[in-house]
């Protein structure tokens, strides 16, 4: 009698099962988040003030005349950003917003692909649909599309910057960074990385691009001076609404100023140690791990200790999350992923039965998510350092170790798929 097992129980490896599950789900999530939630919009519309500013710029009208006392979204881009965003006002508002959402989705798809490639995996691997699923499952991507914000392009510029910097295309690496800084300087802390890595041309070009755009934009704007006199002081304030930074959260809940300052100093010190440890022990032995983890530490700490940290900034932590695939990652612990849930979840905690408690959890989830993530990374690296000190090897230079002492390189595609197959 013929063996029927091969007919009744056909074998399928994990690298085929995972894409088979996640590709259709991920693609439908892309459609849902963009075509339905994105086009529907919500109470917050970040695109409206951008469109108004672009329209005014093209028609020689004042751009920076908003009333910052209201809680409506405000236009906060510098003149260089206004110059780059001006083309959105060439068509009517509704079609411009739809087009902006569409281009944002394309940018996110490119980000998912580049992030997959940056960590050594192919388009047809299980990693690509997993990354895409995680992207569109999160609050940060969903609200970027729903509120129609610029963050998708910031993420694209960040990933391009890291990849080009790592491949030593120094002049090219400065271009995407410079373009994002010209519109939204949220990535400015990452300029520390080329300085630490002695890639001076990256730093120089990243600064030169927004300066050149500013020089071009200034004579074309009728109230560029108002950005300095009105907008810049507002950017330095820690507003008490739509602000998940420690200062913003403290202002909303009435936390004592001394405690707010103490927390901000504590996170700066934790970040300083983390960056030192990563620089000393990983920069020359695993540059990808150093770049991705250091970028996450710099940005996560900035979100917490700066004057403004909004939940959808969390998408800029995606490279940090991807390091979980690498040996030595500080993301290989459950507290870190509990923090990721807090700052990226699309879940709402409003409660009809426990109104006050649900409200507090909802308004604190991003802050405690960032905080727990930064603490988890810090503790992971600190415990490694303490173990090294106890064994008397903390003073050794990692690059001087023998070949046999070098940490294992990241698994190849075949090794990774083999391990997945065995686990299923």
From TrEMBL:
Coiled coil: none annotated. Its EC number is 2.4.-.-. One of its GO terms (molecular function) is glycosyltransferase activity. Keywords: Cell membrane, Glycosyltransferase, Membrane, Transferase, Transmembrane, Transmembrane helix. Belongs to the glycosyltransferase 87 family. The keyword Glycosyltransferase applies. Residues 399-424 are annotated as: Disordered. This is Glycosyltransferase family 87 protein.
């Amino acid at each position: 009698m013929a063996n029927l097992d091969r007919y009744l129980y056909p074998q399928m490896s994990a690298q085929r099962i995972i894409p088979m599950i996640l590709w259709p789900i991920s693609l439908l999530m892309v459609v849902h988040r963009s075509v339905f939630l994105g086009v529907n919009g919500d109470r917050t519309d970040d695109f409206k003030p951008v469109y108004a500013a672009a329209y005014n710029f093209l028609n020689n009208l004042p751009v920076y005349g908003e009333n910052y006392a209201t809680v409506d979204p405000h236009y906060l881009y510098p003149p260089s950003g206004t110059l780059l965003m001006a083309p959105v006002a060439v068509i009517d508002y509704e079609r411009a917003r739809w087009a902006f959402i569409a281009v944002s989705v394309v940018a996110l798809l490119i980000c998912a692909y580049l992030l997959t490639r940056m960590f050594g995996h192919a388009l047809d691997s299980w990693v690509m649909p997993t990354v895409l699923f995680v992207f569109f499952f999160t609050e940060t991507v969903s609200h970027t599309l729903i509120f129609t914000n610029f963050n998708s392009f910031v993420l694209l510029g960040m990933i391009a910057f890291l990849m080009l910097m790592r491949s030593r295309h120094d002049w090219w690496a400065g271009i995407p960074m410079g373009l994002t800084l010209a519109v939204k300087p949220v990535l400015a802390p990452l300029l520390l990385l080329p300085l630490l890595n002695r890639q001076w041309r990256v730093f120089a070009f990243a600064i030169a691009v927004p300066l050149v755009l500013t020089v071009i934009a200034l004579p074309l704007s009728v109230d560029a001076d108002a950005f300095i006199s009105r907008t810049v002081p507002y950017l330095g304030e820690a507003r008490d609404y739509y602000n998940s930074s420690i200062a913003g959260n403290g202002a909303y809940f009435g936390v004592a100023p001394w405690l707010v300052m103490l927390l901000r100093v504590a996170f700066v010190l934790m970040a300083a140690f983390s960056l030192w440890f990563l620089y000393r022990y990983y920069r020359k032995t695993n540059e990808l791990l150093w770049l991705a983890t250091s970028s996450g530490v710099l940005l996560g700490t900035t979100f917490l200790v700066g004057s403004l940290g909004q939940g959808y900034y969390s998408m800029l932590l995606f490279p940090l999350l991807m390091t979980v695939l690498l040996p030595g990652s500080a993301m290989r612990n459950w507290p870190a992923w509990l923090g990721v849930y807090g700052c990226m979840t699309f879940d709402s905690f409003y409660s009809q039965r426990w109104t006050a408690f649900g409200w507090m959890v909802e308004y604190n989830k991003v802050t405690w998510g960032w905080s727990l993530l930064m603490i988890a990374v810090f503790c992971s690296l600190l415990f490694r350092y303490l173990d090294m000190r106890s064994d008397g090897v903390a003073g050794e230079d990692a690059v001087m170790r023998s070949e046999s002492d070098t940490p294992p390189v990241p698994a190849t595609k075949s090794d990774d798929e083999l391990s997945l197959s065995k686990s299923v």
